[in-house]
Design goal:
Pseudouridine synthase; 255 residues; globular; alpha+beta; 14 strands; single chain
Length: 255
């Protein structure tokens, strides 16, 4: 699903009235972000329905991605950097034989290969293993990475040419989990801070001389938080529901 600027507003309850009393509790809110909205849009929604002045997150998710968004409320915003440094896990599917400007299914297709070899999961795993351990990535142009104080995706939309520096990341596991079709495979990835899953798939397709793009992406863990314990926006409609879902500061168990 492509990003829609105001889609987050569709989650606002009918006859909504902003609470008169600000929400002053502090803690972590685990949100299962839907596709089609940005991480900042999810924060905008939480702040609005809860009348919350201060909110941040422990690591952004692309608009097309779903899954665990660790939302930090009030005094918990100071934990942002610590949570971002934690290990993350992702799962989803990718396509071989295509590449796009965004390195995912939402972008403009740049290359397309007519014939994709009939790889087995074991054959493909040998290539995926080359992208584990400490590796170097170049962040995608359509990303929130900032250059000159501006997110790269804004440079891309403006057509501005900027130099994107490589950076080192750590990938603990890049597992090819299932073959869904001749050109479609599912994956499971464990990685450290700053790793772009889209770029892992893109680079895998590049070494195969086929192209590759991410079809779906779901974050399932961040540090010791799990999407199994996360709440959808439809279950966070007011201050009471947010309060009940909140993990207070004194209950956090950060690694």
């Amino acid at each position: 699903m492509n990003y829609e600027k105001d889609r987050w507003k569709s989650f606002i309850p009918e006859n909504f009235k902003k609470p008169e009393t600000p929400f002053d509790n502090s803690g972590v809110l685990l949100v299962d972000k839907p596709a089609g909205i940005s991480s900042m849009d999810a924060l905008r929604y939480i702040k609005l329905v809860g009348s919350i002045k201060k909110a941040g997150h422990g690591g952004t998710l692309d608009p097309f991605a779903t899954g665990l968004l660790v939302v930090l409320l009030n005094k918990a915003t100071k934990l942002s950097e610590k949570i971002m440094k934690g290990k993350k896990e992702y799962e989803g599917a990718f396509l071989l034989g295509k590449s796009s400007d965004t390195q995912d299914i939402t972008g403009v297709i740049k290359t397309e290969t007519e014939h994709v070899p009939d790889f087995s999961t074991d054959e493909l795993q040998k290539y995926a293993d080359k992208f584990t351990g400490s590796i170097v990535q170049t962040p995608p142009i359509f990303s929130a990475k900032k250059v000159g104080g501006k997110p790269l995706y804004k440079h891309a939309r403006e057509g501005t040419q900027v130099k994107i520096n490589e950076h080192h990341v750590f990938v603990e596991e890049f597992k090819i989990t299932e073959k869904q079709a001749q050109n479609r495979f599912s994956y499971h990835i464990k990685c450290g801070k700053g790793t772009y899953v889209r770029t892992l798939i893109h680079d895998l397709g590049r070494v195969l001389n086929l192209g590759g793009l991410t079809e779906s992406l779901r974050r399932i863990t961040t540090q010791n938080f799990s999407v199994k314990n996360a709440h959808t926006l439809n279950n966070l409609l007011n201050q009471e529901q947010i309060k009940n879902a909140l993990i207070p500061l004194d209950k956090l168990n950060l690694l």
